[in-house]
Amino acid sequence: MADGQGGEAILQVRGLHKHYPLMQGVVFKKQIGAVRAVDGVDFDLGAGETLGIVGESGCGKSTVAKMLVNLERPTSGSISYKGDDITKLSPKALKAVRRNIQMVFQDPYTSLNPRMTVGDIIGEPYDIHPEVAPKGDRRRRVQELLDVVGLNPEYINRYPHQFSGGQRQRIGIARGLALRPEIIVADEPVSALDVSVQAQVVNLLENLQSEFSLSYVFIAHDLSIVRHISDRVGVMYLGRIVEIGTDEQIYEHPTHPYTQALLSAVPVPDPDAREHRERIILTGDVPSPANIPSGCRFRTRCWKAQERCALEVPELAVPAVFRLTDSPAKHDSACHFAEEKHVVPGEEEGEDGAAGEGGVG
Questions:
Q1: What one-character DSSP code corresponds to residue 289?
Q2: Maximum distance among all alpha carbons in the chain?
Q3: pLDDT single digits (tens) 184-230
Q4: DSSP string computed for 129-181
């Protein structure tokens, strides 16, 4: 894990929105609404830092990832790389920036072209950016990348179907490294892999971060994996970040009810701690991003919800109750009634039989 929290921000995201229009009619179409997939996201990524983004399926994590590499154009907002807003760059300028921001996709089975050899897949970035590697040097470069990600360089002429899922993801990582980027956006890079392989790929990403001086935006829904690799963690719900802080602040001192509910569902290996822990069970379904509740968007499932929650949108900021303290709970949380709640029991608490304050059914 890189300590990038104090480093200079190389990526700044402000007011990021992505709305997909809902149309009605066949001949005369008119817009009747919009799916607000991403609805106001702000964060910074420091040099050498890993920012984890977690949340339920459909919360907008992958849409954010696609906008960071310009596979999706934002409806509004800015994405600044070293001071330049990449959403406003010309195609030529954007091509140069894309060398420094690469992506590792979720599914290693569909993200690799089955008709191309591994050498062609990893070497394709050199065809788009020929200034990075001369033609006579590309085969050697590809073989070096295969070796770096733990694959036999002699596999360069093989096809994707000849590899396992974990090996394919390593090929995808090698492709992402080809242009020596500064930032890699990893969109659930281990969710399609066996549990036994997930740890190998996560450890590989950690080792590569040190070797290549990388910054990661690591998107996942597995909270334990995100904690293992991340310096800071942002929790998303219905298109917005509702809580963000260091891994210790989020996992040991969560203040937002949604974060607390997510953490209460994390499996606990200690049987004693598991026995004394109460789950926070959320009632109701996740609202549609086409019909987001007024005020706090989590209020329809929150046990703390009051009238104020329906009227006022909570700001993502340090809660007033913690602003003048040195508590680890002093981090940004978008809740009118934020309070610290110990959810994940530690080893000592498991032995003592105490697992926090309990949950809400």
A1: T
A2: 69
A3: 999 999 988 888 899 999 999 999 999 999 999 999 988 889 999 99
A4: STTTS-GGGHHHHHHHHHHHTT--GGGGG--GGGS-HHHHHHHHHHHHHTT--
User: How far is 293 from 104, CA to CA, in rounded Å?
Assistant: 33
* Residue 57: DSSP 8-state: T
What does the block give as tokens for 334?
Answer: 């978008």
Beta pairing, strands 332-333 & 101-104 = unpaired
- Token reading at 152: 């036999």
DSSP letter for each residue of 230-274: -SEEEEEETTEEEEEEEHHHHHHS--SHHHHHHHHTS--S-HHHH
Q: Tell the burial category of 83 from Cβ atoms under 10 Å away from its Cβ (0-12, 13-18, 19+).
A: exposed
Residue 43 tokens read as: 């964060």
Checking if the pLDDT of 343 tops 90, the result is: no
Contact assessment for residue 260 and residue 280, using Cβ atoms and an 8 Å cutoff: yes
- Look up residue 335 and give its amino acid: C
Closest by CA position to 235, among listed 316, 312, 309: 316
Which domains are delineated in the chain?
9-21+36-237 (3.40.50.300), 253-352 (no CATH)
Write down the residue that tokens 């700001």 correspond to: 315
Distance of alpha carbon 185 from alpha carbon 189, whole angstroms: 9
The model scores a pTM over 0.85: yes
